[in-house]
Amino acid sequence: MSATTATAHPQAARRVGLAMAATGAILFSAKAILAKFQYRYGVDSLDVLALRMLLSLPLFVALGIRESRRPERAPMTRRDFGLIVILGVLGYYLSSLLDFWGLEYVPVSLERLILFLNPTFVLLIGVFAFKRRVARREWVALAVSYAGVSLVFVENLRVQGEHILLGSALVLGAALSYALYLSMSGQLIKRIGSLRLVAYAMTISTAATLTHYLIVRDPSHLLELPMPVYGLAAINAFFCTFLPVTFTMGAVARLGAGTAAQMSVLGPVSLVFLGAWLLGEPITAVQLVGTAVVLGGVLLLTRPGANSVPVAETAHNAPDEEEPGKTAAR
What we know:
mainly alpha; globular
């Protein structure tokens, strides 16, 4: 093989990896757009979440079976199973429920920016719960991120009214719930692998969602919804839930965890414009400035050497492979 060919292959793999990372980030963020479309048919956040979990469950069960059969995976202990139950409830049931509920009140652009505070929440949990030392650049990134979200929040409050307060509080709760999931999952990911963890946690989350649904609602209601709701739910389950996981895994294999994490900044940026295009949500100069400020803060946290966790979307689709010589970023 010539030197030119050897050089070309890594370059091609990098281009493919960048495309996969960008596509995964945009697809995962687009679940908010689909939820907004479903709400137009009279369904609520619990309906949206139940359909999403039910339709994606077979895909994650198949993924979990495949991952459990890999010979390099360590056997799971009772403690592992117990922790997975907690993580499944926190990360994919409670967080998703609060997120979809909040979307009933806030525009998708603000929802994405609030969820993008996940890395800062994980950082703060590390400080207060695990006595982690924080570099000056990380404190600067925290301040920048929260300044940007505050700017967009005040602008949305001015444009859309006080219902923004409730919706933002719900989405903030979703971000905090998922940050707890991230903070608790690090060692387990090293033991059993992130794809295996995601598959098992999604299964637990589906069980929690259905239990919630059975307690508060007649399950036959799920069979009586307008047909477009089922079509949108199927798109959400495959294109905005399962597919981004596989795309992000492929990106991590080609780029490493750090670069794949940084590509996820495209998620909230895309929603600012997708929300305006598909949902007619207003875009103001203040919102654009606030979005740029938040992304600047997140980039400070995810640059090499920042010693912090990756951004929210990459955390949702946790890397399954380690970069050569170091553990994949959490």
